[in-house]
Design a protein that fits this description.
It is a single chain. With 102 residues, this protein is mainly alpha-helical. Among the domains are: 35-71, no CATH class; 72-102, no CATH class. It is 47% helix and 0% strand. The chain is built from four helices and no strands. Helix 3 packs antiparallel against helix 4. The radius of gyration is 16 Å and the shape is globular. The relative contact order is 0.11.
Length: 102
């Protein structure tokens, strides 16, 4: 589904400057409304395909080092990002807005 999040409001997601270069390189020469990340043959990136092709392999590599990763889901990463932001001193209200919470 293409559109705004479930509450129909835009969100800002801050990230460290050191990760700016790779997305900028991916966007070079693209139209503003083109997706940054695409699936096979430049098709739509589907969550299920991304999970089976990328996320599951990354989790498997983590499990090799530490079995506590066995139940990790992509949604868990959202919670981790929020916790890390707050522990680094981010304003709790800003983190709530970033996550789309009222």
């Amino acid at each position: 589904m293409w559109g705004t999040p479930k509450n129909h409001e835009r969100r800002s997601v801050p990230f460290p400057g050191l990760v700016t270069a790779p997305p900028e390189a991916r966007c070079a020469g693209r139209e503003a409304d083109e997706p940054v990340f695409v699936g096979a043959e430049s098709g739509v990136l589907r969550a299920g395909n991304f999970r089976s092709r990328v996320v599951n392999g990354a989790i498997a590599r983590c499990i090799e080092k530490d079995d506590t990763f066995r139940r990790l889901t992509p949604h868990d990463l959202r919670h981790s990002a929020a916790s890390l932001a707050v522990s680094a001193g981010a304003n709790v209200e800003s983190v709530q807005r970033m996550l789309g919470h009222a």
